[in-house]
Amino acid sequence: MQKTDLMEKIVSLCKRRGFIFQSSEIYGGLGSAWDYGPLGVELKRNLKNAWWKSIVHNRDDIVGLDTSILMHPNTWKASGHTENFTDILVDCRKCKKRFRQDMIGDKCPSCGARDFTDGRAFNLMLKTYLGAVEDESSVCYLRPETAQGIFVNFNNVLDTTRKKLPFGIAQIGKSFRNEITPGNFTFRTREFEQMEIEYFVRPDEAANIHERWVQDRFEWYLGLGIKKENLQLRKHADDELAHYAAACTDVEYKFPFGWSELEGIANRADFDLKQHSKVSGTELQYTDNLTNEKFFPYIIEPSGGVDRATLAFLVDAYHEEEVKGETRVVLKFSKELAPVHVAVLPLLKKNADIVELAKRIKQDLHRDFVCVYDDTASIGKLYRRQDEVGTFYCVTVDVQSLEDKQVTVRDRDTMQQERIPVDNLKKYLSEQIFN
Ligand code: ATP
């Protein structure tokens, strides 16, 4: 399959089956904004839940936080975003299109001309005004990253949880960037979700802990089903690093449009808490209660994108095969991520007894599984529909089921079918899905 074909197929499947829609489509769409449909919202939520469970619930050293999108404008002065969160833009003099200088060569990607204006700095923060008066004093920004909400709450979290170094604070939330060249579907958008960890450590432990986080984050994607050959680590060269950062490594995924960043894991040294202490006048140092030593912890920051990861898992799950002369499309999601666990399907929708039993089974199963009932097509079509959205098992109720109280359970990946007694169904599915 051509790589461009694959991306087109994914975009089309996402729309057709209700994973992702263009935002404000009936008005012609809004550049680079996307809406998650009934299946997309489940997939994305499963991904965030898997992250939260592994980062917050399964560990004793990390707590969660949910901070506001709007923050005091001085936050962005302290963090350096007001001054430095810029891309250098150039305009093509021939076709008048605008590009990020670092993303093009010496030829215009649109018309091929080699005639650009000089580069100009363009700030990526989205600006708005708070309150009734629109002047400089009411300027506010939509946060371009969730991290700063964590830094400004450092004392609050420390005081309320009494955590000792090393410890972390995790947050999932929306961020906004006025990207110049959004694109590649949900890969680069102006509104997106991040999942970020700020992990506070003693300066002399930072390098080792950074290395550990790089490995942990790499393994996390593999554990949720990404194929190893499609994932790599890329260490930043010294000239790529932010001036304060001691090191950074990206987890990259092999998208159809090339290897691209899913998550960056940076050693930010002591830049953030020092800056916020300076600008706010509030002391944000850590005190060692054994030695009374006071210092600014170093920060290790694994910072990933929810939308990018969701797209990577969609691409990675996409699978086509020939079955009896037809193409079968399957989204081979892992058990943690699959939007639907079980579909209950009546073989004959005109048979009231079959429909009643199927609906009863669905009612019973949906306490433990994400479950759907569908009788809107023939069984062959229903199977194909469920394969295409990654449903783990199809449970079919037929005439025989009314007699022997057994149903057919079909496995998504092997297409093997097994007769299972209705009374054992829950136990059987639990063993398959939750083990
Ligand atoms: P890029 O180089 O691709 O612009 P970045 O290095 O600026 O990304 P970070 O500031 O490190 O990104 O943000 C952390 C994570 O947030 C990224 O790894 C990515 O997954 C996600 N992210 C950043 N910008 C966007 C965007 N415009 N659209 C979707 N996700 C984004």
Description:
The chain has 435 residues and is of the alpha+beta class. The chain has helices at residues 3-17, 38-57, 73-79, 81-84, 147-151, 154-161, 206-223, 271-280, 306-317, 352-365, 379-389, 399-404, 425-434, and strands at residues 20-22, 34-36, 62-65, 86-91, 98-100, 120-123, 126-129, 139-142, 167-176, 191-201, 231-235, 247-255, 258-267, 286-287, 294-295, 298-305, 318-323, 326-331, 342-346, 371-373, 393-397, 406-411, 417-421. The protein has 13 helices and 23 strands. The strands form seven sheets. Strands 3-9-10-16-13-12-11 form a seven-stranded mixed β-sheet. Helix 2 (38-57) crosses helix 9 and helix 3 (73-79) crosses helix 8 (271-280). It is globular. The model has no long low-confidence stretch (mean pLDDT 95). Adenosine-5'-triphosphate is lined by residues 145, 177, 179, 188-189, 192, 194, 261-264, 303-305, 307-308.
Briefly, what is this?
The protein is α+β, with helices and mostly antiparallel strands and 435 residues long. The protein contains 13 helices and 23 strands.
Highlighted features:
about 425 residues; single chain; 7-stranded mixed beta sheet; 13 helices; about 30% helix; binds adenosine-5'-triphosphate; alpha+beta; about 30% strand; globular
The main pleated sheet reads as: 7 strands, mixed
- Please give the count of helices: 13
State the helicity in percent bands: 25-40%
Any idea what the radius of gyration is? 25 Å
Which structural class matches the secondary elements? Answer: alpha+beta
Distance from first to last alpha carbon: 34 Å
Strand content: 25-35%
Average pLDDT across residues? 95
- Name the hetero compounds present: adenosine-5'-triphosphate
In which order are the strands of the major sheet placed? 3-9-10-16-13-12-11
Which regions contain 5 or more consecutive residues with pLDDT less than 50?
none
Number of strands: 23
The coarse silhouette is: globular
